[in-house]
Inverse folding.
């Protein structure tokens, strides 16, 4: 009950947060129209925000959707309503259609209020899709649970309380606006013109959503008023609230699947209920009985995972006829890694011949309470867990444990073919290129320009930082280029890798230069990187040299996700 109450209060103050202000003009659509319009907006908002907050990650994972698609859909809804308010012919046609719809739904109803409710409901559904609050600890906890599909009934009620709290000031703004229009005669006489102004505000909001200007405005607002909104989440930073959140975490953690049962879930191929198997039919527990099993959590665009594969291939070839089984659990880091065709192509290129189960919903990952790529879990013939190892390395010790479990003499494999040496010394940390986990970003954003996503390079780029130039769209996981846009990265390391999603019908090559000159090395030839799939590309390979200034030039739209270094 404490969390429900504070979630409601946090929702009330959310309207003032800097990331909400850019979409508030949408409420103008609730001021215009029939008397039922504000209530329709609130109903639609409550429904869509609650549902999509709790289910968005599941929808994205299971349907392979780009999370930006829902934002675009909302922008389209707002754009249409803006046009209806601005263009009289569209307004009249829309009123005729909604009135006939209302009559069919309830012939005895008073048409006008109902006709206002249903358009408002649709507008509210769109508003809920783009209402991304700067949340405090209570909603952050719910969102974190949603990302791991670990929701409970309390999470639903907390989200509903938060949404209702947010709806209260929204409803007040809309009803207050309608009351003001009714009380001022000169506004009443110019209702049609006022509605056009509201429609224009909605059109501007939709264009801001399409272009990303709403995010730019939030960034600009915080740069001009650095402290704005900083105290909004303090209402939740109470000792009692923190204690209640910790109790929830402890309760949910205690209800997780015990690690002792995960072997059964993995063996039956039901880690998340829908995990398909590649290179194999679903393995049964009976088929693994008496085997030594190495469970390998990996994802094909992770360079750390790729560097372990030569050792796995060596062990599989050496011991598989003696009762050794490798089961790869492919838990994708990025959206395009969920496609079976992409995984199969990567497995073919990387020569992964053992059974792999696609863990797109992270069911097996969560059952193991795993947190790493790569991660190895070695089981003996009796099913007992013999060894765990996270990350690269420890190869000789793991192979010795395999040989001991099989009951054969341990003969170290020595030099393993295909191993890429890891640079000793400093190298740039893994660098994500989306706003979700991005760091060390040094671009200057031109918020005055009529191109809201226009960036420029800084005069001096520091080591381990990156910058953009030109028109870019920055999403949660990636940055999307446009024709003529560029990226610079000042890095430390002998090798540079980049995860790229090559969009269909878009750029097929990227220009590459190193230290101001066209580069050739790694997968780059004559200053060009040819894109052939959604995967990890090696951009730089410079043995003996440990730094450089990399520049990429894009001829069209591609999505770039993360740099890694070796």
């Amino acid at each position: 009950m404490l969390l429900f109450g504070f979630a409601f209060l946090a929702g009330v103050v959310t309207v003032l947060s800097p990331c909400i202000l850019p979409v508030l003009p949408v409420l103008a659509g609730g001021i215009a129209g029939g008397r039922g319009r504000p209530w329709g907006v609130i109903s639609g908002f409550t429904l869509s925000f609650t549902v999509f907050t709790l289910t968005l990650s599941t929808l994205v994972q299971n349907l392979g959707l780009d999370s930006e698609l829902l934002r675009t859909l909302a922008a389209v809804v707002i754009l249409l309503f803006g046009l209806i308010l601005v263009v009289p012919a569209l307004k009249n046609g829309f009123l005729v259609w909604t009135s006939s719809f209302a009559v069919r739904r309830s012939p005895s109803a008073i048409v006008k209020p109902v006709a206002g409710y249903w358009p408002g409901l649709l507008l509210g559904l769109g508003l809920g899709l783009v209402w991304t609050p700067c949340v405090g600890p209570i909603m952050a906890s719910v969102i974190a649970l949603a990302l791991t599909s670990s929701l409970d009934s309390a999470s639903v009620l907390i989200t509903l309380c938060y949404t209702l709290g947010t709806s209260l000031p929204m409803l007040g703004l809309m009803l207050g606006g309608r009351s003001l229009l009714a009380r001022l005669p000169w506004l009443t006489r110019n209702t049609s013109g006022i509605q056009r102004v509201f429609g224009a505000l909605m059109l501007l909001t939709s264009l801001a959503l399409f272009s990303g200007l709403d995010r730019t405005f939030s960034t600009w607002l915080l740069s001009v008023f650095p402290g704005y909104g900083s105290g909004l989440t303090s209402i939740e930073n109470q000792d009692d609230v923190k204690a209640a959140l910790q109790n929830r975490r402890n309760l949910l953690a205690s209800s997780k699947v015990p690690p002792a049962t995960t072997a059964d879930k993995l063996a039956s191929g039901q880690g998340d209920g829908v995990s398909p198997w590649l290179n194999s039919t679903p393995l049964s527990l009976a088929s693994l009985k008496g085997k030594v099993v190495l469970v390998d959590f990996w994802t094909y665009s992770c360079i750390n995972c790729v560097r372990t594969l030569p050792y796995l291939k060596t062990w599989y070839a050496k011991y598989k006829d003696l009762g050794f089984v490798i089961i790869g659990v492919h838990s994708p880091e990025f959206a395009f890694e969920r496609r079976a065709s992409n995984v199969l192509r990567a497995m073919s290129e990387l020569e992964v011949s053992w059974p792999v189960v696609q863990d797109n919903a992270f069911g097996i990952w969560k059952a193991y309470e795993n947190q790493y790529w790569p991660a190895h879990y070695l089981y003996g013939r009796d099913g007992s867990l013999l060894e765990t190892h996270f990350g690269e390395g420890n190869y000789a010790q793991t192979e010795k444990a395999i040989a001991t479990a099989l009951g054969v003499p341990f003969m170290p494999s020595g030099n393993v073919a295909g191993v890429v040496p890891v640079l000793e010394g400093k190298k740039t940390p893994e660098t994500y290129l989306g706003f979700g986990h991005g760091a060390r970003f040094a671009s200057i954003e031109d918020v005055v320009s009529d191109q809201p996503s226009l960036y420029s390079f800084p005069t001096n780029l520091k080591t381990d930082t990156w910058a953009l130039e030109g028109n870019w769209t920055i999403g949660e996981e990636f940055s999307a280029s446009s024709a003529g846009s560029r990226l610079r990265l000042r890095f430390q390391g002998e090798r540079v890798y980049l995860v790229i999603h090559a969009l269909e019908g878009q750029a097929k090559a990227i220009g590459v230069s190193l230290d101001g000159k066209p580069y050739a090395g790694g997968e780059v030839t004559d200053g060009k990187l040819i894109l052939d799939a959604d995967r990890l590309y090696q951009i730089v390979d410079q043995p003996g040299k440990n730094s450089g200034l990399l520049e990429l030039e894009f001829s069209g739209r591609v999505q770039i996700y993360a740099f890694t270094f070796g």
Summary: Residues 2-245 form one domain. The chain is about 45% helix and 15% strand. The longest strand covers residues 547-554.
